[in-house]
Amino acid sequence: MAWREDGGALVQDYEFADFAVAMVFVNKVAKVAEAMGHHPDILIHGWNKVRLTLTTHSEGGVTDLDRRLAEAIDRL
Questions:
Q1: N or C: which end of the chain has fewer CB within 10 A?
Q2: What end-to-end distance do the CA atoms of the chain give, in Å?
Q3: What's this model's pTM, rounded to 2 decimal places?
Q4: HEC profile for 40-71?
Q5: Which of the residues in the chain have pLDDT under 70?
Q6: Given this model, what pLDDT does residue 39 score?
């Protein structure tokens, strides 16, 4: 899957087998984000879907930090 730019942010949608697997993924993302000190917006919707949105609000858009976090999430 590829991240897409949308409204000054990087966005990625995921669909999982069930709610439990989606939550495992979200918790992995949270651990990586906390370690990097940069936190995505996380939307859990439906029973198995997750949308991640990365942006640096203080900079008004996407920065290298967002790109590095996206790459780290891709490695999960």
A1: N
A2: 13
A3: 0.95
A4: CEEEEECCCEEEEEECEHHHCECCHHHHHHHH
A5: 1
A6: 95
